[in-house]
Structure formats: C-alpha cells, structure tokens
Specification:
Elements (H helix, E strand, L loop, with lengths): L5 E6 L2 E6 L10 H16 L5 E6 L21 H20 L4 E5 L2 E3 L1 H8 L2 E5 L3 E3 L10 H11 L1 H10 L3 E2 H6 L5 E3 L4 H13 L3 H15 L3 H10 L13 E2 L5 E3 L6 E3 L9 E2 L7 E2 L2
Parallel strand pairs: 2-3, 3-4, 4-6, 5-7, 6-9
Antiparallel strand pairs: 1-2, 7-8, 10-13, 10-14, 11-12
Helix pairs in contact: 1-2, 2-3, 3-4, 4-5, 8-9
Length: 286
Amino acid sequence: MSEEVLLCEDRGRVRILTMNRPEKLNALNTALTEALLAWMKQSDRDEGVSVVVLTGAGRAFCAGADIGEFKDLTPDQAARVEHRAQLTMHSHLIFSQIKKPVIAAVRGAAMGGGAGLALASDMVVASETMKLGYPEIKHGILPAIVITNLVRQIGRKAAFELVTQGDPLTAARAFELGAVNKVVADDKLMDAALSLADSLAAYKLEALFAIKQLFTRWWTCRWPRGWKKAARRTSPCGRCAPKRAVAAGPVQRRVFPSGIGPDVVAPHRGSWYFAIHNNSNSRRQR
C-alpha cells in the first residue's frame, strides 16, 4: 500500500483516508486506485476502526480517472484494459462490501470516478465548493460502471440528464436530489465530517455494522425480498441481530392491511425471536 498516493490517519475509532495527488486533483491512476482498495479492506479488518472518512488533499476531492493512463489502454492491450476495468469496478463495490460505514468529505471537483466514489459512500458531507458530475460524454467516454449506482441515488431522469449533459451539480442541487447529506462552509468540511463519524462510532458496533449490512442487502434486492430480510433481522425489542445472532423461538407475524409486508410483534409463549449474540443461554441460529 502506497503512502505517497493515499494517506491514513486514525483519530480514535475514526480512520481518515486522504487521496494524495493534489497536483492532479487526486485523479485516479492505477496506483491510487489500488491503494484505496487495499486500505479500505485493511480498515474493515482493523478492530480499532469503526468508521472511515474518505477525502482528498488540496482543493478537490477527486477529478475522476487519470486519462493520462488511457493512451496505454488500447485494443491490442486487452489484458490491461480488463485489469483497469475490474480495478475500477471493485474500488466502487468495496464501499458496500465492507461492514464499516464510509463518510465522504467532498470539496471542489468530484467528477466521473470521483463522483462515483462519493456516491458509493454511505454518507456525504459536501463543501459549498463541491461540483459533482460526469463529464465523460464530452471526452467520448462511456461512464458505464458508475451509472447503476447513480440511477439508484438520484433517480433515472436526473441521472440521465447529468450524464448526457456533462455539466456538474452544485452542492445545493446535489443536496436537493438527495445525493449528499449535508452542505457546509469549506473551512468546516472536515470538522463536520469527523463530528458525524464520531457520532456513529459512539454506537454499539454490532448494531452499527448490522444496520449497514441490512441497508446494503435491502438496497440491492427486490422489495419483497428486502422486507423478508428486514423481518428476519429484527427482534421484537427493536434490536438488530448481527451475523452471530442466536435464536430463541419462531416469530409471530401479521400482515399490514395494505399488504406491504410482515410486522414483527411481541413474542408469545414458545415463539421464536432474534436476540443479540451475547445471550449465552440461547441456541445459535442455523
């Protein structure tokens, strides 16, 4: 993992990852993309880390792919083209694959792949200077990898306009579309992001991680399956059961009058319900 292109700093249980190519507006070359992917995986394994904050050095978050490398990605270099495409895909997928929440602290340009990294994060704190967009069409490039998540984040029509026009969103417009959680003054960006991260890190970790896992699974499946997954991971007392959940009997369910899904209610005698894994007297869910 290269400390030159990506910096790591721990503040309590919060890890700050800073893309460090300010002279290139933190454009994603192969070295930076590999470092980001490696550090995200390492952060997920590190038991001392609860939340990750991703930001960029200098006046930009990330200007997208480093097109200086594209001259070598020619049709006769199929293996290199495939490697770069896979690397880009995995660098976006990793956000939903790790159990720890990721907050993007975004100032200045967040373009192309950089916009994709911001939107892949669980939460986004944006500076008033943020410009988020996909200018690929102006360069004759197809933003294929980022389109799926973009549509999910802001809706089909807004996404289609953003991609086909190539003009960036302001921070205020991104907030209106639900692409960012909070807009702050530029000099307050990191303070706001770290305050949000600290608030998450203060919660019980099993619950925090289970909430992210549930959001990810619910977001990536069809609604009926999402409701069933939510019901299976909800206890009558409102606790969420992490991966090492145990069971204590069948759950009583009723269907809402609208028929939208199961409602988990208080257990009756002999019922099954999920409990937090530290209940040593219960049998493990199989």
